[in-house]
Specification:
The structure is a homodimer.
Chain A (H helix, E strand, L loop, with lengths): L4 E8 L2 E8 L2 E5 L1 E6 L9 H6 L5 E3 L1 H6 L3 H6 L3 H5 L5 E3 L3 H5 L5 E3 L4 E4 L6 E4 L1 H11 L3 E3 L11 H21 L7 E6 L5 H14 L3 E4 L8 H11 L9 E3 L5 H9 L4 E4 L1 H6 L3 E4 L2 E4 L19 H5 L2 H9 L3 H27 L3 H12 L8
Parallel strand pairs in A: 4-5, 4-14, 5-6, 6-10, 10-11, 11-12, 12-13, 13-14
Antiparallel strand pairs in A: 1-2, 2-3, 7-8, 8-9, 15-16
Helix pairs in contact in A: 6-7, 7-8, 13-14, 14-15
Chain lengths: 375, 375
Amino acid sequence: MSHLTFDIIKTDGQARLGTLMTAHGAIDTPAFMPVGTAGTVKAMTPEAVAETGAQIILGNTYHLMLRPGADRVERFGGLHKFMNWPGPILTDSGGFQVMSLKGLRKMSEDGVIFKSHIDGSSHNLTPEYSMQIQHKLDSNITMVLDECTGYPATEKEAESSMQRSMRWAQRSKDAFVARPGYGLFGIVQGGIYPALRQQSAASLQAIGFDGYAVGGLAVGEGQEVMFRVLEQTTPHLPAKRPRYLMGVGKPSDIVGAVRRGVDMFDCVLPTRSGRTDQAFTRMGQLNMRNARHKDDTRPLDPTCSCYTCRHYSRGYIHHLGLAKEILGATLLSWHNLHYYQDLMRGLRDAIATGALDAFTAIFAAEQNAGDIDPI
Amino acid sequence: MSHLTFDIIKTDGQARLGTLMTAHGAIDTPAFMPVGTAGTVKAMTPEAVAETGAQIILGNTYHLMLRPGADRVERFGGLHKFMNWPGPILTDSGGFQVMSLKGLRKMSEDGVIFKSHIDGSSHNLTPEYSMQIQHKLDSNITMVLDECTGYPATEKEAESSMQRSMRWAQRSKDAFVARPGYGLFGIVQGGIYPALRQQSAASLQAIGFDGYAVGGLAVGEGQEVMFRVLEQTTPHLPAKRPRYLMGVGKPSDIVGAVRRGVDMFDCVLPTRSGRTDQAFTRMGQLNMRNARHKDDTRPLDPTCSCYTCRHYSRGYIHHLGLAKEILGATLLSWHNLHYYQDLMRGLRDAIATGALDAFTAIFAAEQNAGDIDPI
């Protein structure tokens, strides 16, 4: 029995409308989780994040374990209290970021020994240690430590890597301390190989998790391959548990993945784009540094009801970008997060009314409608 | 007759409690004006600025004329609309910042020819042109163009400079287009020389302004000299018009200047300090980068009711500073602006109840009480 209640209210094709219940509140799915890397969703207050409609945010175990440190966060009463976010929090295992520290880490069956990018101190990230850290952070959704298989990888490499991830999944489960309203998600690996993905999904179900993530995608394989792997994976996951596509993605990635049965997403794109003067709109992406915006009194998106679009012009946001003003990063991050939450609301409404095909067609047509800037 | 109504409600010694009425709302005095250099109070939304209690902000003509340009701001409906600040705005003349561009500017009786720090373009800032720009910005309180006398300056230099400022004050007045709820302030110059200050005050009153600023202070002369010059100047200003001490200052500067009859202040200190991890508190100034804060669960100031102090610990703010997170600049700017507005509220309440001496004694004792960090 799971410690995270998940109710599926309605389906439309493979897509699912649901509610995931945690100790810190409910999450309507399909859901997008803004990334709060170092204990803050960059350039945003928590109240502004909530105002966009976000119900859950993601914290990065790698960053938080190094600074301010998991013990310190625990002494402050957990990450919710430390960062003033009373809602649900999902934390990653730290593995993905540690493994991307090429020359600074050493992998073994036990775990990953790595050096901090901040002070060079040495750390040993094992499945057991990752669970301890995530417990100290008071994460509502803990992720198993896995080995994110690189891309490209041969079938042999992908299999060996996936098998290790499955052993680590078992160790993560063994070390995880269950509590009501807190859960542990397994992560399917296996690269682009359907048989490996199927085998990984089966192994995880044999262990038993509160939810199932699809890992090792959005690492350079392209949208077409990603969608194909999803089609070959989600049918092998338990129907009644939430599914999370890690680190994804562009708006069109999300729409396509929801249609293939994914319930949860996270990505730095809306906030990172906001800090580099990029705006997502229903009509495409805008580069706010482009001089064509300087005299434009219209909001970023006339159909958007976010704080930024209610109060500020494209011309003003263009000005803030040129002047490198902090408020520019805040206004664009706010709008972009609101755009992503609007997209999720649209998807949920479409599933609720059995109109996902029509929603998808309109989404695709609008994205190609042409208010887009050359980036 | 003035186009800005100023009512003095109560006095306590030289200090005055008043209300200044503009087309965009009322300002309770003594007032502190946050600085919105380039069309934004750095790291703050306008709603957050208003939430601290600020009723008027300052815009910098020099920055705004170069980018986005006064004509563009006018096409957007003025600075209030452009930056989403519906309250009163005071703009400086641009002179102070232009004159600090040492090798890039050339002074003459006509005005100042200077090169833009942004694109090297050449501009000629005259009293008439400064008035035009400030009109286009839709400034509620326009400042005359003056020559800010350097420090130190001989009496002869200070006199010659002050005389030019008086001629420019007349030209500014002639070029200013009066409207109800919009006013023009003159600026007293004369360096540290009482006779010159008195002569300057008389010259300005002969021209007639809606308010009188004291310029050329906080330029290196120190608090003692500044207070002495104020004592030698404010008695020569009309009792019924607002007085503004430009670019000041530290909390103790403001308390001392209010006691010497000043009604309005502006300074970048609360926001600039916020972006460099400094916090003003009743017990002194904190350097939030100091490691002693890392495990401190207390707010910046337990007596403060600002957004930051209601929701965040010193330890969290210390963490944001180390991680160079934008939210750190926002939270500290918010707190510091709230501290300044609390100080002004305290001064106004003290004047209202005839308790300014007691307020000043408590202020001085608290500032030396010792929660201060070595900076």
